Amino acid sequence: MKNTKIKFEYKFLLSYLIIGGFWILFSDRALKSLIYDIHYLTVIQTYKGWFYVLASGLLFYAYLRKNLYKIRKAEQKAKKSESLKSAFLQNMSHEIRTPMNGIVGFVELLKSENLSKEQRERYMDIIHKCSNQLLGVVNDVLDLSLIETGNITIERGKVKLNNLLDEVFSSHIETLDNGVQLTLTKCEIIADAELITDEVKLKQILDNLLSNAKKFTSHGKIEFGFERQNRNLLFFVKDSGSGIHPDMIKRIFNRFERAEVETTKLSGGAGLGLAICKGIVTKMGGEIWAESVLGQGTNFYFTLPYLTESDE
How far apart are CA 76 and CA 235, in angstroms? Predict the structure, then answer.
């Protein structure tokens, strides 16, 4: 049977009638049994009426205030969400248009018959990079959609953790800015152990966190790795970049929110990476959080269950 929720105005009216009915019924009976003088009875009933008006007014004020607070809070949340969505869509438009313009523009240039081999190869390389950038944006949107609808799947298998970390290190070391050092820290106690987890998803989390660290670290170092904590593995990505404001530290994993809204165009990206990381980590049975000092850097941590073949 479908549950039907009573509307607020009906609750309010029903409460008023019930309280008033009980008050009149029981108070009149008590007064008539104690007071026989009609004059005094009339005076007391007048005061009783005023008392009821005052008491019910105070009760309904408290009731209305509580419900109106919820309504106003929901309205503020909806307005904020709408504002964040608008900012997100504007940023997405920018993120899609930029590589698309690059692809269309350089495809037109390739039509020229007077291009040298070097020019043609350079244009093809730019088109390839723009295509990968556009594909990354589309994949982020699809991943977030799967997470939001609960349709994301985890494919568990044997993963040689240190080999995976070496691959991640190799793929990111080539794209660092000058003056930024990348280091990898491994847990030697389980150096050769095989972890039972989703290799693709784990690599996606590390790639997102490292890409985020590179985006906001112009000098200094970025360190990533893992250590064992009882039945969990604690992964970390630490940077010496610009850091995150304390007011934003708990909100950066929310969809549509970014810690550097005013520098979105400078930093680039769709701003979905951290929300995707949180969704994947949660689905894999772990937790993710961040610690940061503004102007000194940010440390991201996430845990995953330490499952081996013997645990299957």
Answer: 36
Q: Count Cβ neighbours within 10 Å for each residue of 164-186 and write b for 16 or more, e otherwise.
A: bbeebbeebeeeeeeebebebee
**Digit-coded pLDDT (tens) for 247-279:** 888 888 876 665 444 444 444 555 678 888 999
- pLDDT tier for residue 188 given thresholds of 50, 70 and 90: low
Q: Is residue 68 within 8 Å of residue 8, measured between CB atoms?
A: no
Residue found under tokens 């996430």 = 302
Please state the pTM of the whole predicted model.
0.65
CB 165 within 8 A of CB 183: no
Q: Which contacts qualify for 171-178: CB closer than 8 Å, 24 or more apart?
A: 171/207, 172/207, 172/210, 172/211, 172/214, 175/214, 176/214, 176/222, 177/214, 177/217, 177/218, 177/219
User: In 150-198, where does DSSP find H-type helix?
Assistant: 161-173
3-state secondary structure of 153: coil
Amino acid letter for position 23: W
The pair of structure tokens assigned to 79 is: 């307005």
Residue of 161, 158, 304, 309 whose CA lies nearest to 230: 304
Crossing angle of helices 273-283 and 199-215, in 10° steps, is 150
Q: By the 8 A CB rule, do 69 and 83 touch?
A: no
Element holding 49 (H helix, E strand): helix 38-110
Secondary structure letter of residue 112 according to DSSP? -
Closest among 194, 150, 142, 140 to 283, alpha carbons compared: 150
Q: Please tell me the chain's helix, strand, coil percentages from 3-state DSSP, rounded to the nearest 5.
A: 60, 15, 25
Question: Which tens digit of pLDDT belongs to each residue from 101-114?
Answer: 888 998 988 888 88
Structure tokens at 144: 């977030």
DSSP letter, residue 218? S
For the segment 214-220, the average pLDDT, to the nearest whole number, is 88
160 DSSP 8-state letter: E
> What one-letter code names the amino acid at 64?
L
Q: For the segment 20-53, what is each residue's pLDDT rounded down to a tens digit?
A: 777 666 666 666 666 666 666 676 767 777 777 7
